[in-house]
């Protein structure tokens, strides 16, 4: 197998025998097969809405920690192949990408992995009925280009276009989420768990949570979010359910520890699923694009409905805790404040602007991105703890669970730590940055704003490409640089965009604040 698409790739180079994520060579081969089938099909079929939907799902299924079921990937591959006339020439082999010249492989990897991130975000939007022809067409264009292009200059242009399309996609998902569930409002979420039956929902999908909340509303079963589902508490149309009680646990990489002997089922709506341990595997349920062999999958019927009865029955049978559990976040705090989308933050933009003008607010940091298992990721909590009192910290995605239960005080009537939401809510952060640049009549790069990002999987790749497409410079990235970025491609990113690896919180803070 050859897989280096995520941050935990073996030895920081490539997974060749078995994936650190649990992916085995057979699954890696199936994933290569489906991507090759998509590349072949992209040469012969148009981007009708049905075709785009299938391409999107197939790409999403190959993201890290999403679908571990070889049989499901195989049947999805058959579906893709069935689009193509028998006489068509099917010949693409992913080995031609993995064994290409270092820089070409690197650029094609950036395009493919970024495209997977786009597919994930667009998938969530499509479920809510929001699609975009430009995004649909881009799947086909980018996949065709992976087969046909071999010059670095054209590939680099396509890398930037992937960033642009991801920006369009994040905007679409933002519109889908806020028009369907309302604009998030600041919400303090408890980490305590009430006695009685409950279900833990993890992943990223708001629609699945809404369906589950509706299905459980009279059942005496409480719902707790996990991981990237935390920001769901802030959406009016989701928080209106009184049995959406609180948040359980921290980020995805702690699930095997946190779900151990949990007296409740867990519903995985999207990534990140890890191989379930025996101590809780009888209570794992998957839905939409997530699947794991042997785990119960909640499918969708012909009318788009899902029957959550098995999850609800499991919750009732397990019964939940007998007493209230005083659980906490990573630092012992028992609340997590979330819900600062662009609507809320721009609503108080005058306060931020006044604070910057008066000198009360010296700098804004965006400390956001994925979490993961590497010990080097403690950098991000240390960084936040070390930020001076006259600075503001924006955050988003699952990396925040290392510090989002901390109370780091207030500035100008605002909390110093502002959670903007899931990883796709990077869109909110960009909107706020652009609005501030407008007020100060400067470019985003001239604002007292620094981006300190953590990456793990391919959605983070697509967000990084968006930031580069927007011309945002001097992004710090960690805990390590992507293995699929070749030295020459890295040189381009460093020289043109000032991308740099994180060092230590002290040194980076000193460099930023001068
Ligand atoms: Fe975190 Fe995992 Fe959100 Fe990533 S829960 S690493 O998928 O997209 O961020
Ligand atoms: Fe390795 Fe990541 Fe690929 Fe899994 S997804 S096989 S951990 S590089």
TrEMBL record:
Domain of life from the UniProt record: Bacteria
Q: Which residues form a coiled coil?
A: none
Q: Which key words are in the record?
A: 4Fe-4S, Cytoplasm, Iron, Iron-sulfur, Metal-binding, Oxidoreductase
Identify the residues that bind hybrid [4Fe-2O-2S] cluster. 204, 228, 272, 370, 398, 423, 457, 459
What are the binding positions for [4Fe-4S] cluster in this chain? Answer: 3, 6, 15, 21
Gene Ontology MF: a single term? hydroxylamine reductase activity
What is its cofactor?
[4Fe-4S] cluster; hybrid [4Fe-2O-2S] cluster
Q: Which CDD domains match?
A: HCP
Task: Name the principal localization, coarsely classed.
Answer: cytoplasm
Name any one Pfam family assigned in the record.
Answer: Prismane
Listed under catalytic activity are: A + NH4(+) + H2O = hydroxylamine + AH2 + H(+)
Q: Does the keyword Oxidoreductase apply?
A: yes
State the compartments where it is located. Cytoplasm
Q: What is its EC number?
A: 1.7.99.1
Spell out which residues are annotated as carrying Cysteine persulfide: 370
Q: Which Gene3D superfamilies match?
A: 1.20.1270.20, 3.40.50.2030
Q: Which family does it belong to?
A: Belongs to the HCP family.
Task: Please explain the role this protein plays, according to its UniProt record.
Answer: Catalyzes the reduction of hydroxylamine to form NH(3) and H(2)O.
Q: Which PANTHER family match?
A: HYDROXYLAMINE REDUCTASE
* Name this polypeptide is given: Hydroxylamine reductase
Organism name: Sutterella massiliensis
């Amino acid at each position: 197998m050859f897989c280096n698409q995520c941050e935990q790739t073996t030895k920081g180079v490539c997974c060749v025998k078995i994936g650190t994520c649990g992916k085995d060579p057979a699954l890696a081969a199936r994933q290569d097969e489906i991507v090759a089938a998509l590349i072949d099909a992209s040469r012969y079929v148009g981007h009708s809405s049905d075709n785009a939907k299938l391409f999107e799902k197939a790409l999403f299924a190959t993201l890290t920690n999403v679908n571990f079921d070889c049989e499901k990937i195989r049947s999805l591959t058959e579906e893709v192949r069935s689009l193509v006339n028998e006489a068509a020439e099917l010949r693409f082999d992913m080995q031609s990408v993995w064994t290409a010249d270092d820089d070409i492989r690197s650029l094609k990897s950036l395009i493919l992995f970024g495209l997977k991130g786009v597919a994930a975000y667009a998938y969530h939007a499509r479920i809510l009925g929001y699609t975009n022809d430009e995004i649909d067409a881009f799947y086909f264009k980018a996949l065709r280009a992976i087969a046909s292009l071999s010059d670095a200059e054209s590939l680099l242009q396509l890398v930037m276009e992937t960033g642009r399309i991801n920006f369009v996609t994040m905007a679409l998902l933002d519109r889908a989420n806020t028009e369907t569930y309302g604009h998030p409002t600041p919400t303090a979420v408890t980490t305590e768990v009430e006695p009685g039956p409950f279900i833990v929902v993890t992943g990223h999908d708001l629609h699945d949570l809404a369906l589950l909340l509706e299905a459980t509303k009279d059942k005496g079963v409480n719902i707790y979010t996990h991981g990237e589902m935390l920001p769901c508490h802030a959406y009016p149309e989701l928080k209106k359910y009184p049995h959406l009680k609180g948040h359980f646990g921290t980020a995805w990489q702690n699930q095997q520890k946190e779900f151990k002997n949990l007296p409740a089922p867990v519903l995985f709506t999207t990534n990140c699923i890890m191989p379930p341990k025996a101590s809780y595997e009888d209570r794992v349920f998957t839905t939409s694009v997530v699947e794991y062999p042997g785990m119960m999958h909640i499918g969708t019927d012909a009318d788009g409905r899902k029957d959550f009865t098995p999850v609800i029955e499991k919750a009732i049978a397990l019964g939940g805790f007998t007493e209230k559990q005083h659980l906490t976040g990573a630092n012992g705090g028992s609340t997590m404040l979330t819900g600062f989308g662009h609507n809320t933050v721009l609503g108080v933009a005058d306060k931020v602007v006044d604070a910057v003008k008066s000198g009360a607010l010296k700098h804004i940091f965006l400390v956001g991105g994925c979490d993961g298992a590497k010990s080097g990721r403690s950098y991000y909590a240390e960084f936040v703890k070390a930020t001076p009192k006259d600075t503001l910290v924006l955050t988003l995605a699952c990396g925040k669970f290392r510090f989002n239960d901390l109370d780091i005080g207030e500035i100008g009537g605002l909390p110093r730590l502002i959670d903007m939401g899931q990883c796709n809510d990077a869109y909110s952060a960009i909107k706020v940055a652009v609005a501030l640049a407008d007020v100060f009549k400067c470019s985003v790069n001239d604002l007292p704003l620094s981006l300190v990002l953590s990456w793990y999987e391919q959605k983070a790749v697509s967000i990084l490409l968006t930031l580069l497409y927007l011309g945002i410079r001097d992004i710090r990235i960690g805990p390590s640089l992507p293995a699929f970025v070749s030295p020459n491609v890295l040189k381009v990113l460093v020289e043109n965009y000032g991308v740099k690896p994180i060092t230590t919180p002290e040194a980076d803070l000193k460099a930023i604040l001068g």
